[in-house]
Amino acid sequence: MSSVLNQQINMWEDKPEEMWTAVLAKDPRFDGSFVFAVKSTGIYCRPSCPSRRPRRDRVTFFHLPEAAEAAGFRACRRCKPEQTTLDDSKVAMVRRACRLIEANQDESLNLETLGQQLGLSSFYLQRTFKGVMGITPRQYAEACRTKRFKSNLQTGESIVRALKFGIGHDAGNLQPPGSQDEDRLRHSRICAWFCAGGSNHQRTLCRETGRC
């Protein structure tokens, strides 16, 4: 959660208290403008969520539900913040980009191709995506693959299959040259995390892949 959270760009750097006031008031007028996430529970909500309010120091804000999920938070089941809609054209474009990245995790989707599918230059796409999300398309693709990797393990997939069909794929040219080495290092760290917390059988499977 922290790696993406630390990189997020707060779209309301001069208005955090106004946002917090809206959250305290459960003001529905702000639904779709932002979501707030609670660090202690790992859940994010829309401003009007009926749930009990957390302490201010445990709350952080995100422009989009996708940004909150990329940071490791999950949607509240009561207020369903991921179902809110926004009219802003840039935000709508970024959400389309997110859907394309999510739908092409098994393919080598590069930034230029992604831009062509959206009718944008790769430069404008990269700049706008990071301006809205606080992270780059590459980092969002990595977060999606990591999420799927963990989901595969939790549903009983072997470590071999989870690596192959989860984080094992690279992000194509959404990432710069040389970053495959970074991916290998990331894989080894995830494998070490899995070995430390898995069952004896899971640790054996992990060692058999030769990735530990």
Q: Could you say what the CATH topology of the largest domain is called? A: DNA Methylphosphotriester Repair Domain
The major pleated sheet works out as: 4 strands, mixed
Helical content, roughly?
40-55%
H/E series:
HHEEEHEHHHHHHH
Describe the structure.
This protein has three domains: 2-83, DNA Methylphosphotriester Repair Domain, CATH 3.40.10.10; 89-135, Arc Repressor Mutant, subunit A (Orthogonal Bundle), CATH 1.10.10; 138-208, no CATH class. Strand 1 and strand 2 form a beta hairpin. With 212 residues, it is α+β, with helices and mostly antiparallel strands. The chain contains ten helices and four strands, in the order H-H-E-E-E-H-E-H-H-H-H-H-H-H. Strands 3-1-2-4 form a four-stranded mixed β-sheet.
